[in-house]
Amino acid sequence: MLVRLAPVHGEPAAGRTGPRGRAAQAAEGPVNEALLRAFMQSSPDGLVFCDPSGKVIAANRAFLALAQLSAEEQARGQALDRWVGRTGIELGVLITNLRQRGVVGLFITSMRGEYGGNTEVEISAAVLNADGQTMMAFALRDIERRLKPEANPATLAMPRSVSELTELVGRTPLKDIVSETTDLIEQLCIETALQMTNDNRASAALLLGLSRQSLYVKLRRYGLGSLGTDDEG
Questions:
Q1: 54 CB contacts (<8 Å, ≥6 apart)?
Q2: Strand extents, DSSP E, the chain
Q3: Is residue 110 part of a domain?
Q4: What is the per-residue pLDDT across 41-99, written as a single tens digit (0 to 9) for each?
Q5: Which domain does 165 fall in, by range?
Q6: Is residue 129 part of a domain?
Q7: Rounded CA gap, 72 and 65, in Å?
Q8: Last residue of a domain, one of 77, 109, 142
Q9: Is residue 228 a part of any domain in this protein?
């Protein structure tokens, strides 16, 4: 578990410096609204709140830095997928899962900045309901500097296969080389989509542009995963 701590400096309310003031603060609880607002701005992770349609309501300084924006006003009212998601549907997949489950964690994607910056981020999100208002809250953590996990043996095969295939140029027709590599590339893409969606096959099919039935056929072909369960819920 990775824990990040940030100092939060709250200003005491006027007239609350004496014993009565301390008693009033205790009655409000250990964390008041001002402290929560201070934490939001001080957090090293990007925090952004959106309406149910995915448009930004509020964002902290860390999010603005990732999006390469100079002021919060530049983000308000804009669709979050302007900056978040590798493909046109990736954020839609995240929001769909969020609406169904209420919370989503460990969703890895990419965030695009206004000036061409690109950052790998890990997203946790939750649906919030208060005073009859519904919104979605997202926490985006920059994982560019995180130590990369041990490589999957399937991914290690790719460079070796490319090297071997280049040796076939001039000796084997191009269509035969392409035919031999299609299965490997297809399998790697399916495995990547399953990892990005936490093994949710319905979402993986959307990312790959396949019907769910077509994805199931390919899963059987490559022996990937267990086909005895449906992961829509």
A1: 79, 80, 81, 91, 95, 136
A2: 46-50, 56-59, 103-112, 118-130, 133-142
A3: yes
A4: 889 999 999 999 899 999 999 999 999 999 999 999 999 989 998 766 778 888 888 88
A5: 153-222
A6: yes
A7: 10
A8: 142
A9: no
